[in-house]
Amino acid sequence: MAGHIDHGKTSLTKALTNVDTDRLKEEKERQISIELGFAPLYEDEEIQISVIDVPGHERFIRQMIAGVAGIDLVVLVVAADEGVMPQTREHLDILGFLGIKAGIIAITKIDRVEEEFIDLVKDDILSELKGTVFEDSPFMMVDSLSSKGIEELKNLIIEKLKQQEFRDSRGAFRLPVDQVFTVKGQGTVVRGTVYEGKVEEGQFLKVMPKGIEVRARQLQVHHQPSQAAFAGQRAAINLSGVSREDIERGDVLVSSEHFIVTRTIDVAIRVVEDLEHLVKQRTPIKCHIGTAEVMGRIVFFDRNDVKDDSDEILCQLRLDEEIVTKRGDRFIIRRPSPQETIGGGWVIDPRGNKYRFGEKTIAELEKKKVGTPSERVAAALYEAKSLTLAELIKRTALDEGTLISTLKSDEFLHFSGKEYTLKKLAEAIEDDITDRLEDYHRIHPLRQGLNKAELIQGLEKSFPRNLLDFVIENGIKNKIFSRKEQYVKAAGFTPHVPKNWEKRIENLIAELRKDGLKVRYLDDYIKSTGIPDNLSIELKRFLEEQGIIMPLDNQYYWHKVNFDDAVSKLKECTSAEFEVGDAKQAVDLSRKYMIPFLEKLDSLGLTKRVENKRIWRI
Fold first, then answer.
1. Strand spans (E) along 274-312
2. Residue 82's pLDDT is what?
3. Rounded CA separation 135/384 (Å)
C-alpha cells in the first residue's frame, strides 16, 4: 500500500485483512504510520499474499523504501477528497525506479464526496500516471468504513498476483532484514521478505556484511509456524548465535558465501523529472538498497553535474559502509540535505573499480551493462530454463558462431540432441527432486518410490517436461536415483516398516505363517494387531512386493513359505495333468481356498487350464 499520508492506507489494509498495522503508541496517538506494517491477506495451496503498509509521511520515506523493496504488486492509494499530492508523486517515482510493474489504483474515502468529484480525481490521477508504469493500471473505488468495493479489490489483487510468474526458490537464500526485535524466552527475531532461495528450520546462515554465523531456530510465515520459507514470502526467523544488539535493519541473512560484500558499485541510474537541485560530481547521497540505508557519493565519468536528463546515466556509487548486493538489484538514491529523491536504478557490477573520467570508461560500463555473451546466454536460460540454438539466437541477439563458441563452456549443458540449459539449473532440479523423494520416503516408507508421472507433474509448473525427463534419467544413470517399473526413488532408499509398527507387523506375519493354508481375511489379521486402517493397502502391497505374502484373491493371503510348500506338495502328489478333485486329495483344502489357489497358479504361469483339467508348465 503506497500513497500520501492520511489517504487511508492503514484503514484499507485493515478492511482487507482485519489487521491493524499501526502497532506503536505514537502511531495510535498521531494516527500516522511510522514503521512498516504487515498483514496476511490471502492463502491457498498455490499462493500466499501479504500486505505491506508503508508510511506515507515524508519523514518516513526510508521505511517506505524498505517496505517496497521486493514486492510484486502496488496498490496506489489516493483519497477521493484530496486527489494526487506531492508525496503520491514521489512514491510513484520510487516505485518506478524499483522496477515495480504491476499496480492497482485505489480511490479511497468515496463516501465523503459527490460522484462527479470522483471523476475529477480519476482524471487527475490519469494525468499524473501518464508515462509511468502505472498508466494502464485498473481503478477501484473503495470506502474502508462502509466496506464498499473492498471484496472486489481483494479479488482483483489475488487475480493479478496469480497471473504473475512466481518467485524463484532455487539457488542461495537471501533475506534483507527490515525488522529486529526480541521475544521473551526465544531471543532475537528478524523479519523480512525472502528475496530469493529458501530457508529451512535448523539451517545455518550468515548475517552479512558482518559475517556472523547464526542458526534459524524457528520460522514463521504469515504468523504461522513453518518448516521453510520461500522466495516472495514474508518470514520471521528466530535466530540463535546472535544478540539483538548485533543485528540491524539493512543487514542481510544469506545461506551462501557467494554473495558479494562491497562499497563500490557500478550502476545505471535515471533521475526524477522535476529534480529541484543540481546533482554535482561527488555529491553526497543516501543509497537505499534492499533494506539498507547507506551514505556515499555519486561519481560520474561523462559529466560534472546533472539536473534535467531523461536518459539512463552510467556511473558509480562509492559508499561509506559495506552492503550485500548482486547484479540486477534495484536501489534509490536521495539527497540527505535538503532532502529529496534524486533517482534510482540497478546494479551493473557490484565489484566496481576506480576508473578514469572519459568516454572509454563509459564504453566499458556499457559493455558490462549489456553483459558478456556468456552472461547473456545464462540470463536467457535462467529465465526460460531450456532453449534450442535458434531460440537462443533470438533471445540473446548473438550470431551463431559466437553463440556456439559460448555454449562450449562447462557452464552449459546440451541435452536431448537440441536443447540447452544451465548446468547449475540442472543441479538445482536434481537437488529439488532428491528433496522431494526423501520427503516422500519419510512419509511413505512402505512404498517402492514416487510414480515418475506424479514427480514430473509436481515440477512441471516451473520447468519444461523434457528438461525434467533429462535430469531424472541422468540421475538414474549417475546412481543418484533408481527406478523400478514406473517408480523413482532415492538411490540409497529401501522400502521398510516404520519402527513404531515393526513389532505388530512381525506378529501379523507370524500369525499368518502359523495358520498355514486355512487363513482368515488378511484385513482381520491387520485389525487384530492394531495396525491403522489407513496403512492397510500400503502394508499389503509392501508385504507382497517383499515376497512375504502371496494373494490368492483380494481377501485371502497366504504366507509365501506356506504358498511355496503347497505348490511343492501339489506338484509332488499329482501327475502332469490333474483335476480339482486330484488337487483336493493332494492338499486338504475346502473349495473357498482351492479355487483361488488354482487360479493363482494359472495367473503365475505355473499351470494352464484346459477345460476341466490343469497342465503343469514347470
1. 279-280, 284-289, 292-300, 305-306
2. 80
3. 28
The per-residue pLDDT for 28 is: 41
Please name the CATH architecture into which domain 501-616 falls: Orthogonal Bundle (1.10)
Name the CATH topology of 174-254.
Elongation Factor Tu (Ef-tu); domain 3 (2.40.30)
Specify the pLDDT at position 21.
62
Contacts of 251 (CB under 8 A, 6+ apart): 176, 177, 207, 208, 209, 210, 292
Residue 358 near residue 311 (C-beta atoms within 8 A): no
- Fold (CATH) for 424-490: Arc Repressor Mutant, subunit A (1.10.10)
pTM of this structure:
0.61
Instruction: Give the pLDDT score at 360.
Output: 94
Geometric angle at alpha carbon 58, from 56 and 61, rounded to 5°: 75
User: Is-contact 235 178, C-beta < 8 A?
Assistant: no
Answer positive or negative: Cα dihedral of 592, 587, 528, 537. Answer: negative
**Helix, strand, coil in percent for the chain, rounding step 5:** 35, 30, 35
Say which CATH class 2-163 falls into. alpha beta
DSSP one-letter code for 201 = T
Q: Could you tell me how many residues make up the chain?
A: 618
pLDDT at 70: 63
Which pairing describes strands 557-559 and 577-578: parallel, antiparallel, or unpaired? unpaired
Q: What is the pLDDT of residue 36?
A: 62
Domain ranges of the chain: 2-163, 174-254, 260-370, 424-490, 501-616
How many Å apart are CA 169 and CA 141, to the nearest integer?
Answer: 35
Burial class (CB in 10 A: 0-12, 13-18, 19+), 505: buried
Looking at domain 260-370, its CATH superfamily turns out to be Translation factors (2.40.30.10)
What is the spatial distance between Cα 344 and Cα 273, in angstroms, rounded to a whole number? Answer: 12
260-370 and 501-616 have identical folds: no
CB atoms within 10 A of CB 507: 15
Block means of pLDDT (10 residues each) for the chain, length 618 residues? Answer: 78 86 45 56 83 64 59 87 76 81 89 81 84 85 88 94 75 86 88 88 94 93 86 88 92 82 94 88 94 95 88 96 88 89 89 91 88 86 87 76 89 92 94 93 86 90 90 94 91 83 85 92 85 76 87 91 94 92 90 93 93 90
